[in-house]
Design a protein that fits this description.
The chain is an alpha/beta fold. It has one domain: NAD(P)-binding Rossmann-like Domain (Rossmann fold). It has seven helices and five strands; from the N terminus they run H-H-E-H-E-H-H-E-H-E-H-E. It has helices at about 5, 10-20, 45-60, 70-75, 75-85, 90-95, 110-120, and strands at about 40-45, 60-65, 90, 100-105, 125-129. The protein has a five-stranded parallel β-sheet, sandwiched between helices. It is globular.
Length: about 130
Protein backbone atom coordinates (compact mmCIF):
# COMPACT_ATOMS: atom_id res chain seq x y z
CA UNK A 1 0.00 0.00 0.00
CA UNK A 2 1.52 3.33 -1.07
CA UNK A 3 1.39 6.47 1.00
CA UNK A 4 1.48 10.01 -0.34
CA UNK A 5 5.15 10.64 0.40
CA UNK A 6 6.31 7.39 -1.19
CA UNK A 7 4.43 8.19 -4.42
CA UNK A 8 6.54 11.33 -4.94
CA UNK A 9 9.65 11.34 -7.12
CA UNK A 10 12.91 11.60 -5.16
CA UNK A 11 13.40 15.31 -5.94
CA UNK A 12 9.96 16.15 -4.56
CA UNK A 13 10.57 13.97 -1.51
CA UNK A 14 13.77 15.89 -0.81
CA UNK A 15 11.97 19.21 -1.35
CA UNK A 16 9.26 18.16 1.12
CA UNK A 17 11.83 17.04 3.69
CA UNK A 18 13.55 20.40 3.27
CA UNK A 19 10.39 22.05 4.58
CA UNK A 20 10.21 19.83 7.65
CA UNK A 21 11.48 20.72 11.08
CA UNK A 22 12.19 17.88 13.43
CA UNK A 23 11.20 18.62 17.01
CA UNK A 24 13.51 18.22 19.97
CA UNK A 25 12.43 16.08 22.91
CA UNK A 26 12.35 19.10 25.24
CA UNK A 27 9.64 20.72 23.10
CA UNK A 28 7.24 18.16 24.56
CA UNK A 29 8.07 19.04 28.18
CA UNK A 30 4.90 21.15 28.49
CA UNK A 31 2.57 18.61 26.92
CA UNK A 32 0.14 20.15 24.48
CA UNK A 33 0.43 23.75 25.75
CA UNK A 34 1.72 24.90 22.34
CA UNK A 35 -1.57 23.85 20.76
CA UNK A 36 -3.88 25.52 23.27
CA UNK A 37 -5.73 28.35 21.58
CA UNK A 38 -5.02 26.86 18.15
CA UNK A 39 -7.61 25.33 15.82
CA UNK A 40 -7.08 21.59 15.31
CA UNK A 41 -9.06 20.01 12.48
CA UNK A 42 -9.17 16.25 12.16
CA UNK A 43 -9.98 14.78 8.76
CA UNK A 44 -11.88 11.55 9.30
CA UNK A 45 -13.91 10.42 12.28
CA UNK A 46 -13.59 6.66 12.35
CA UNK A 47 -12.10 4.74 15.26
CA UNK A 48 -8.73 6.54 15.21
CA UNK A 49 -10.05 9.99 14.40
CA UNK A 50 -12.78 9.94 17.02
CA UNK A 51 -10.64 8.65 19.86
CA UNK A 52 -7.70 10.94 19.13
CA UNK A 53 -10.11 13.88 18.98
CA UNK A 54 -11.68 12.90 22.30
CA UNK A 55 -8.21 12.65 23.89
CA UNK A 56 -7.14 16.03 22.50
CA UNK A 57 -10.37 17.70 23.62
CA UNK A 58 -9.90 16.19 27.10
CA UNK A 59 -6.47 17.89 27.08
CA UNK A 60 -8.13 21.26 26.48
CA UNK A 61 -7.65 21.58 22.73
CA UNK A 62 -10.09 23.08 20.22
CA UNK A 63 -11.06 20.17 17.94
CA UNK A 64 -13.30 20.07 14.85
CA UNK A 65 -13.87 17.42 12.18
CA UNK A 66 -13.65 18.02 8.44
CA UNK A 67 -15.63 15.43 6.51
CA UNK A 68 -16.53 14.94 2.88
CA UNK A 69 -19.76 16.66 1.83
CA UNK A 70 -21.36 13.29 1.09
CA UNK A 71 -20.59 12.00 4.59
CA UNK A 72 -22.32 15.03 6.10
CA UNK A 73 -25.30 15.04 3.71
CA UNK A 74 -25.90 11.31 4.16
CA UNK A 75 -25.19 11.47 7.91
CA UNK A 76 -22.75 8.59 7.67
CA UNK A 77 -21.05 6.94 10.65
CA UNK A 78 -18.21 9.51 10.70
CA UNK A 79 -20.72 12.37 10.92
CA UNK A 80 -22.65 10.53 13.63
CA UNK A 81 -19.46 9.83 15.62
CA UNK A 82 -18.50 13.50 15.62
CA UNK A 83 -21.93 15.03 16.22
CA UNK A 84 -22.94 12.52 18.90
CA UNK A 85 -19.84 13.59 20.83
CA UNK A 86 -20.53 17.31 20.49
CA UNK A 87 -17.80 18.22 18.00
CA UNK A 88 -18.02 20.92 15.36
CA UNK A 89 -18.34 19.29 11.92
CA UNK A 90 -17.92 20.87 8.50
CA UNK A 91 -16.65 20.29 5.01
CA UNK A 92 -13.02 20.59 3.99
CA UNK A 93 -13.77 24.02 2.51
CA UNK A 94 -15.44 25.22 5.70
CA UNK A 95 -12.84 24.11 8.25
CA UNK A 96 -9.41 23.53 6.69
CA UNK A 97 -8.67 27.21 5.82
CA UNK A 98 -8.87 28.26 9.49
CA UNK A 99 -6.94 25.29 10.91
CA UNK A 100 -3.55 25.67 12.53
CA UNK A 101 -3.07 21.89 12.64
CA UNK A 102 -4.74 19.42 10.27
CA UNK A 103 -4.58 15.75 11.27
CA UNK A 104 -5.29 13.31 8.44
CA UNK A 105 -6.76 10.30 10.24
CA UNK A 106 -8.48 8.74 7.26
CA UNK A 107 -7.78 5.14 6.20
CA UNK A 108 -4.30 4.70 4.67
CA UNK A 109 -5.68 3.95 1.21
CA UNK A 110 -7.32 7.41 1.15
CA UNK A 111 -4.29 9.46 2.27
CA UNK A 112 -3.06 10.56 -1.17
CA UNK A 113 -6.51 11.66 -2.28
CA UNK A 114 -7.20 13.48 1.00
CA UNK A 115 -3.82 15.23 1.09
CA UNK A 116 -4.30 16.43 -2.50
CA UNK A 117 -7.72 17.83 -1.59
CA UNK A 118 -6.80 19.59 1.64
CA UNK A 119 -3.33 21.02 1.00
CA UNK A 120 -4.56 23.77 -1.36
CA UNK A 121 -7.06 24.84 1.32
CA UNK A 122 -4.52 25.16 4.13
CA UNK A 123 -3.39 28.58 5.29
CA UNK A 124 0.26 29.63 5.28
CA UNK A 125 2.04 28.27 8.35
CA UNK A 126 -0.49 25.53 9.10
CA UNK A 127 0.80 22.03 9.83
CA UNK A 128 -0.39 18.79 8.24
CA UNK A 129 0.08 15.63 10.26
Amino acid sequence: MANYFNTLPLRLQLAQLGKCRFMNRDEFAHGCELLKGKKVVIVGCGAQGLNQGLNMRDSGLNIAYALREEAIAEQRASWKNATDNGFEVGTYEQLIPSADLVCNLTPDKQHSQVVSAIMPLMKQGATLS
